Fold this sequence. Notes:
The complex is a heterodimer. Chain A is of the alpha/beta class.
Amino acid sequence: MAKTEMKKKRKIDIMAEMPERLSSGHRLCAGCGASIAARQILRGTTDPVVISCATGCLEVASTIYPYTAWEVPFIHNAFENSAATISGVEAAFRSLKKQGKIPKNKKIKFVAFGGDGGTYDIGIQSLSGALERGHDFVYVCYDNEAYMNTGIQRSSATPFGAFTNTSPAGSCSFGKSQFRKDLTMICAAHHIPYAAQASIGYWQDLVKKAEKALAVEGPAFLLVLAPCPRGWRFPMEKTVEIGKLAVDTCFWPLYEIENGVFKLTKKIPDKKKKPITEWLKSQGRFKHLFEECNENVIEEIQQKIDEDWQRYLKTNGDKIF
Amino acid sequence: MTTQTLSGEFFMAGNAAAAEGAIAAGCRFFGGYPITPSTELAERMSRRLPQIGGVFIQMEDEIASMAAILGASWAGKKSMTATSGPGISLMMENIGLGVITETPCVIVNVQRGGPSTGLPTLVGQQDVMQARWGSHGDYEIIALAPGSVQECFDVVIKAFNFAEQYRTPVIVLMDECTSHMWEKVVIPPPEEIERINRKTPDGPPPEGEDFYPYRCTDGTMIPPMPKAGDGYRMHITGLTHDEKGYPKINAATQDKLVRRLCDKIRKNADDIVITEDYMLDDAEIVIVAFGTVSRSAKSAVRIARKKGLKVGLLKLVTIWPFAEKKIKELAERVKLFVVAEINYGQIVNEVERCVAGKAEVRLSSKLGGELHHPEEILSAIPEVVV
Lengths: 321, 386
């Protein structure tokens, strides 16, 4: 017992000493999950880091003129090409190394950030291209499950049943009527060395995955659930709690796919698996689902989660790609 | 919100008025993607269209949005998208496809400052030449610019009517100011709104190969448009095509097609060009303006008149095709044109071309982010001491 505590403490100590890449003073909302994701992930390496960032909350609120919260080189680009831009940067770096203009042993980590809109939707083409070409970079999608920067519109990451301003709930609709696409699996299907799904609620798991992603040679992909108090309608002090609840209800399983092998990084025993209603009740965007007419929607969500979870349990440890 | 088309007096923002204008014009399909400052237009359509039997789809990007409205139009619906800045750039390829396939549709571009991400939340008028020439190849297009919230409603209806009448994409060049400004809007009862619908082929679909979807038989240069599912044999392509719609890659077919695509708009310019005169009758100096800037320009005219200067305003509602005839007429009798636009000089070049040295042409330029003050426009007039 004492030994594990010591071990844990050591890990925290090490992490605390890691360089701070995203400084305080940025203008992301209080309780924003995206800033937690970006900050924690960048603590996964001591090497120099170059960042490209798609248009989105993280970019807009961290770079308001005349300030920037970034302590590292930062390239903003158009919405759809965070991965394409970092491809160019990484390729140039390799070329300069080859030409002897950069020392052969010089290590730089290339990290592309995008929100769910910039990754699942408009940016998936450039992401897919970069993964297939095999650039040595990490793509991080901070997933707050809608276009929050433009004021809460649905994305293909928005969960089934959620209210957004372009999937409004009312007499004609119960909210979004499609399930989220499984982006981590899509990325893993590019046969990249590392892909993982994480949540800011379980930050140790997140940092561990970030370390792995940053360490591998070749493309790595991280999908991080980043709860959004404004868009999901919950009090800002609940961000981490809700990030945990997503995992505990199996709405957001934590897993990784390393060299094609699928592994659940947090197993939820049946007894501890919480009903999805706990997750849904915690956020105003699902409020309408608790009206009588929408009972079947909740049932459908629970059913999908259970099916997926069973599948994950079955596949655990298998080489799937 | 009502489940019917609205009528009466309302207080709303330009984005909402444009959405209601589309609905009043008969638009029942919207494919779009969120982008500031146009997002509220899509949001309103996502609520309103399901209430009136229409369809709203949020697409994965602007390329897909533009493609979706072309598809919906061929399925027989009046369709629209709305975007801004980087979004309109992404739409350009498919706008060209809309031109060559002669697909009626309306694209609202709520202009913000550019280039690139530029000024997402602030006004610009920097996309006027892009509206004209943004897609590759030779073509003509119709573009209209509303200057008030009421005009957002009215002009979008006009845009749909032109799109249907001339079988072409029509661009509505709104700007951030008109989109977010709240004003009174009067929406007439549905029976008082003029709605033009595309011509459709007469008679049942002919057997075999005998249908010519791109053959003009009534001397208008605009062929009737069947819709998917009507039973007509259709081949819709972005390749140069003959009257059957089949690809034909040679100079003769290209000449015939492109000439007609351009001429159907060029030769109907008198019908399409809408301008508004304000105190132009005795004017010696003409301010040319469009969109929100026309309001500053109107104010500038009033100030100048108080100073005893004969200044008038030519407001362009139709930007493309350009109001050549009007400018040429004015050039015969006035001494100075001042073109006020929120860009580094775009429409001013068109004005210069039409004036052809017969009067002086000056530019009153703002580069985006704010409107002209009336005094700024006046400062381009030598006689005015501001």
